[in-house]
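ok so for the tutorial part 2 we go from a plain amino acid sequence to predicted structure tokens. step 1 is just haveing the sequence, like this:
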Amino acid sequence: MECCSNSKQTITLNVEGMSCNHCKMAVENALRELNVDNVEVDLAEKKVLVTFNKSNIKIEDIKKAVTKAGYEVVE
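step 2 — the prediction. this is what the tokens look like for a chain of 75 residues:
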């Protein structure tokens, strides 16, 4: 049986299109709707660091939320 601490995962996404605090808030709010544990947006580096419970949330769901907010996740 897997312990709950093993279900936490942190990923960094490269996100294009973010340029201001409004963009930062839009991405943060979109991801918080998924009930992620933590979101950190770095506008200068165009990166979003997300910590989440991988047993409840899929990486694809996180990417879709960012895209739905109007930004592009790049590999």
